[in-house]
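Structure representation:
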Amino acid sequence: MGRLLAIDGLNIVRRVYEASPEPDSPEKAEIALRHAFSSLRNLINDHQPSHVLPAFDFGGRTWRHDLFGGYREGRAPMPEPLRAALPAFYDKLRGIGMHVVCVPEVEADDVIGTVVLRWLADSRGDATVASTDKDLHGLIAHGAHVWDHFKGEWHDHAWVERKWGVPPEQLPDLLALMGDVTDAIPGVSKVGVKTAARLLRTYGTLDAIMAGAGILKDSLGETLRKEREMLYLSRQLVALKTDVKVGVTWNMLAWEQF
C-alpha cells in the first residue's frame, strides 16, 4: 500500500518567514526559504511517503472571492521579497523530484482536499496532511491523518474534539457558525467556538440548528434567524472544494526516493 504526504506549502513557508522579527528583505526571504526547504525534506525523511503533493496557493482571486467580495478583506498581502523568491524556491523543489502544484482560482487547501479524497477513495493507502490549517482537519473524518510539523504531533479525532468540542465531520459546520477572522468569513454574530459546539452537539447539523432556531426565544435564536443567509454563505466559504482539476497523475506525484 502507498503513503501519500500532502504538504500545505505556504503554511510552512509563511510561518517560517514570519517567525523572524527582521524587516522584510530579500535576505530574510532567502533564509526563510532555506529553512522551509529543510522542513520539507525533513517531512519526507520522517514520513517516508510513496507519493508527495506539495501544494501552494496560486495567488490572486479565487472562487471564494467571487462568492463573497469581502473574503480575506483586510488580510495583509504576502511580503513582496517572499513573493519574488517563490519561483526559484519551486524550481529548487522540482530539482529534488517534487511536483509542485499551484492551480489558478483555488487555494492549496482545495487541491489537498481533492487529491487526498481521491487517494482514499481509490484505497491507495494512508494519507497524511502536513498543515496547521483548521479547515484541513475536516479530512480526518474521511480517514486522513494530520501532522503538525511545528509541534511534532499528530492530530486525530480525539485531538479535534478536545480542541473544538466537535468531531471532525462537524468541523465545517462549526467554522461556519463561528466564522474566521483571518479570512474575514462572517459566521454568526457573537457565536464563538463554545456556543457553536454546543449547538452542534444539541442539533447535529446546520439545517437542524436552523430548524430549531424558529422556536428559540432568546437573542441567539433571533440572531440565527436574522443571519441565516450569511451563515449558509459562510458554510460555502469554509468548505473545501474537492473537485479541482489538479492536472497531475499518481505517477507524477510518486516519490522516487521511497
Remarks:
- The mean pLDDT is 95.
- The beta strands are 2-8, 51-55, 125-130, 145-148, 153-155.
- Residues 26-47 form the longest helix (22 residues).
